[in-house]
């Protein structure tokens, strides 16, 4: 499942939670591939507010099963069945 919060859901047509089934492939999916898939399939507007290069934009907190993705290997983390990935925007207008 992918969850968006802190305003990030606005980039996904206001949808906060997506239950995602990724297509089968020979190698396990990793976070880098997931971000590409999200950008192609779920992100509806202003991708520059969510992704930068091949990663998330600074200011987007990523949690994998409630743990900071920096502790999990970031882009190299290999997704497991039933993983819960959360994206939270820490950037707010003033």
Automatic annotation (TrEMBL):
The modification 1-thioglycine is found at residue 94. Pathway: tRNA modification; 5-methoxycarbonylmethyl-2-thiouridine-tRNA biosynthesis. The keyword tRNA processing applies. It comes from the Eukaryota. GO terms for cellular component: cytosol. C-terminal thiocarboxylation occurs in 2 steps, it is first acyl-adenylated (-COAMP) via the hesA/moeB/thiF part of MOCS3, then thiocarboxylated (-COSH) via the rhodanese domain of MOCS3. The keyword Nucleotide-binding does not apply. InterPro entries: Beta-grasp_dom_sf, Mopterin_synth/thiamin_S_b, Urm1. Keywords: Cytoplasm, Isopeptide bond, tRNA processing, Ubl conjugation pathway. It is found in: Cytoplasm. There is a cross-link at residue 94 (Glycyl lysine isopeptide (Gly-Lys) (interchain with K-? in acceptor proteins)). GO terms for biological process: protein urmylation; tRNA thio-modification; tRNA wobble uridine modification. Acts as a sulfur carrier required for 2-thiolation of mcm(5)S(2)U at tRNA wobble positions of cytosolic tRNA(Lys), tRNA(Glu) and tRNA(Gln). Serves as sulfur donor in tRNA 2-thiolation reaction by being thiocarboxylated (-COSH) at its C-terminus by MOCS3. The sulfur is then transferred to tRNA to form 2-thiolation of mcm(5)S(2)U. Also acts as a ubiquitin-like protein (UBL) that is covalently conjugated via an isopeptide bond to lysine residues of target proteins. Belongs to the URM1 family. This is Ubiquitin-related modifier 1. It comes from Astatotilapia calliptera. The lineage of its organism: Eukaryota, Metazoa, Chordata, Craniata, Vertebrata.
């Amino acid at each position: 499942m992918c969850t968006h919060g802190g305003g990030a859901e606005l980039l996904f047509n206001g949808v906060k939670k997506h239950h995602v089934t990724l297509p089968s492939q020979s190698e396990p999916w990793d976070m880098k591939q997931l971000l590409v898939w999200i950008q192609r399939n779920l992100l509806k507007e202003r991708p520059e507010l969510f992704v930068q290069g091949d990663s998330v934009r600074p200011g987007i907190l990523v949690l994998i099963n409630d743990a900071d993705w920096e502790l999990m290997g970031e882009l190299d983390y290999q997704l497991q069945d039933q993983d819960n990935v959360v994206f939270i925007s820490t950037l707010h207008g003033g």
